[in-house]
Give the backbone structure.
Amino acid sequence: MVKKRACVFISGSGTNLREIIKASRDYNFPVKVCLVASDNEKAKGIIFAKKFSIPYVCLNTNKYKFEKTILKKLFEYKIDIICLAGFMKILSKKFIRNFKKKIINIHPSLLPKYKGLNTFQRALKSNEKLTGCTVHFVNEKLDSGKIIIKKRVNIYKDDNVETLKKRVQFEEYRAYSCAIRRVYNFN
Ligand code: GAR
């Protein structure tokens, strides 16, 4: 099977990157991670690119330069799909238009609820009983593209940001690989 070529964008700890790489080692998984891109030279997640010998680009620079440089790399590595995994910059409309191929993102809430930042704090403050995560296509509006998959997580009375984050992230790992399979109709 010829796998599609993925670039994973990260800004921080990269645990979703780690899980995508693990899933991609399955012969039947539709993508191979061929490149990792980070807008943060100190992103812990780069360790996973190193560990699995995946080429990576780290650029602490302004958005314009970052996007220009990365776009070249994406063409150079013949990337078919960008997976945003804890990437904290908002991609410009120009970048999205120029890439032209698939871009997907994981967001720690049940979209359309709680777009943007601090989703756990906001869900707890609003006394929600349920939250979760969503993988969606990226379009030119923040956290608004077509939804591929959602996973639900209960919120308990004694939850705080850390306990909730831990349970949501556990679901994220399963959600992201399911979503990638779904994008390529492999489930
Ligand atoms: C994940 O929980 C992801 O949903 C979130 O950042 C975390 C990254 O964790 N993304 C966003 O908030 C995007 N708006 P990771 O670096 O360990 O994968």
